[in-house]
């Protein structure tokens, strides 16, 4: 079996209020993006890693990892799903329909090698694929305006993380079909709308997405605790 990684890294990260996109903020002496890519390379399972980078991105060319032989650059897209699709197109000709693709956010630098291997080991014989996720410990409210109109049964609520692991051909056709649909906020949702039921694999809750300024300090703390 052949495994590819796709890393959408073409966001601007507005919620960070920073002077540069969040994937280029500093974390442990490197950029967030370099730390994320280093984790994927350390897993030693990927034939190639396609990174979707905005065409106006002036930071990427200066990163040494941009010249790594396993790294393939693809143009970024308007939304995250467009960036993922662009990276999948960059793998066309190399990737076979049944190959596995693990899509992982550039902004998740705390992914452990153990979780990558756990996801792969659990799903490698699955016809479709699935995602890392964590069970929700918070009580979740359904809200309209400022009023609560219901409480979700949290025993079947999970928070989706990345990597999300799917067959190359299936993922590409699902994203193509659902292109422009605002309901597509991750890869699994595109497959769900095509009628598939992707699997859930319990991941580590410290696999956070850098979203708000304080998340950088949190990521540094988590990374220092990890044994990988
Ligand atoms: O903004 P958000 O946190 O949802 O972004 C998740 C990931 O998707 C980030 O790694 C970001 O760089 C990427 N992204 C992208 N292309 C976009 C928007 C987001 O590659 N147009």
UniProtKB/TrEMBL annotation:
<dbReference type="InterPro" id="IPR018294">
    <property type="entry name" value="ISPD_synthase_CS"/>
</dbReference>
<comment type="similarity">
    <text>Belongs to the IspD/TarI cytidylyltransferase family. IspD subfamily.</text>
</comment>
<dbReference type="GO" id="GO:0019288">
    <property type="term" value="P:isopentenyl diphosphate biosynthetic process, methylerythritol 4-phosphate pathway"/>
</dbReference>
<feature type="site" description="Transition state stabilizer">
    <location>
        <position position="15"/>
    </location>
</feature>
<protein>
    <recommendedName>
        <fullName>2-C-methyl-D-erythritol 4-phosphate cytidylyltransferase</fullName>
        <ecNumber>2.7.7.60</ecNumber>
    </recommendedName>
</protein>
<comment type="function">
    <text>Catalyzes the formation of 4-diphosphocytidyl-2-C-methyl-D-erythritol from CTP and 2-C-methyl-D-erythritol 4-phosphate (MEP).</text>
</comment>
<keyword id="KW-0548">Nucleotidyltransferase</keyword>
<keyword id="KW-0808">Transferase</keyword>
<keyword id="KW-0414">Isoprene biosynthesis</keyword>
<feature type="site" description="Positions MEP for the nucleophilic attack">
    <location>
        <position position="154"/>
    </location>
</feature>
<comment type="pathway">
    <text>Isoprenoid biosynthesis; isopentenyl diphosphate biosynthesis via DXP pathway; isopentenyl diphosphate from 1-deoxy-D-xylulose 5-phosphate: step 2/6.</text>
</comment>
<feature type="site" description="Positions MEP for the nucleophilic attack">
    <location>
        <position position="209"/>
    </location>
</feature>
<dbReference type="InterPro" id="IPR034683">
    <property type="entry name" value="IspD/TarI"/>
</dbReference>
<feature type="site" description="Transition state stabilizer">
    <location>
        <position position="22"/>
    </location>
</feature>
<dbReference type="InterPro" id="IPR001228">
    <property type="entry name" value="IspD"/>
</dbReference>
<dbReference type="Pfam" id="PF01128">
    <property type="entry name" value="IspD"/>
</dbReference>
<dbReference type="InterPro" id="IPR029044">
    <property type="entry name" value="Nucleotide-diphossugar_trans"/>
</dbReference>
<dbReference type="GO" id="GO:0050518">
    <property type="term" value="F:2-C-methyl-D-erythritol 4-phosphate cytidylyltransferase activity"/>
</dbReference>
<dbReference type="InterPro" id="IPR050088">
    <property type="entry name" value="IspD/TarI_cytidylyltransf_bact"/>
</dbReference>
